[in-house]
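Contributing new complexes? Match this layout with 2,5-dioxopentanoic acid.
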Amino acid sequence: MKAYQLKNGIILEEKDQLYLGEGEDWSNFINNDDVLSIASSWISSGKVIPIKKLDHSLLKAPIAQNQELWACGVTYLRSKIGRQEESKDSGGADFYAKVYEAERPEVFFKATPHRVAGSGEKVRIRKDSTWDVPEPELTLVVTSSGKIIGYTIGNDMSSRSIEGENPLYLPQAKTYDACAGLGPCVYLTDQPLDKQTEISLTIQRNHALIFEGSITLSQMKRSPEELVSFVYREASFPGGCLIMTGTGIVPDSSFTLQSGDEISISITGIGTLVNSVA
Ligand code: DO4
Ligand code: MG
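Output block (do not edit by hand):
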């Protein structure tokens, strides 16, 4: 079952059929341990009505106003290697090697909802940055009790020039207006995702493909439950929380994003998140 946040309601999608719940509130819906059975009962009871088409221009990022977006880092070997390359002159490379092996993962605050773009909306690169990449990441949708009730697609936009200059600049490399993309929907499930689930990234410039890459979840060093347990350690999330699980795709050092680039991130079973760069 998939759920989409609309400007004024919720759309459910089950077995290729769409259902509209006009006026339904996303924040109540998404922070509920039983959301999957509630969504099914909405369909069987007729609380939501069948519709024919999904109007993508009405979609909102699947994050409620009372939720936070957190992120985890260096959870794939490719991310460790990329960070070590960019920080070798600053002497920061050792920190990435250590955190990849350590029991405690890297977790950081990424964004409040107003800094998040939905699918079809624009993400930004900072004006004071010279080297920028999208980071395609499986994103966990977690309730206030710490239960993973679904998954969405995340784009953890990152300034490699700022992060590489000094690891202490991480919040500036990661958090700014339109620094993240999320969407298009939440895939609601009680089951863990298959390890062969593929995350793929393409970047188009002037309608030409300039980058493509893919990775499977089998390459992720940490489990989703482990990441939730660290984010929720000593922090409560009354409205629930979304957690990006880190990138396994990092373009080589010669690549940087430009205004106008179109970033598409697909995850098997969830869909495709599309954001262009402002
Ligand atoms: O340590 C810097 C950020 C890491 C990150 O965002 C990632 O690995 O996805
Ligand atoms: Mg990341």
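Reviewers usually confirm one structural detail per submission. For this one: The longest strand covers residues 148-156.
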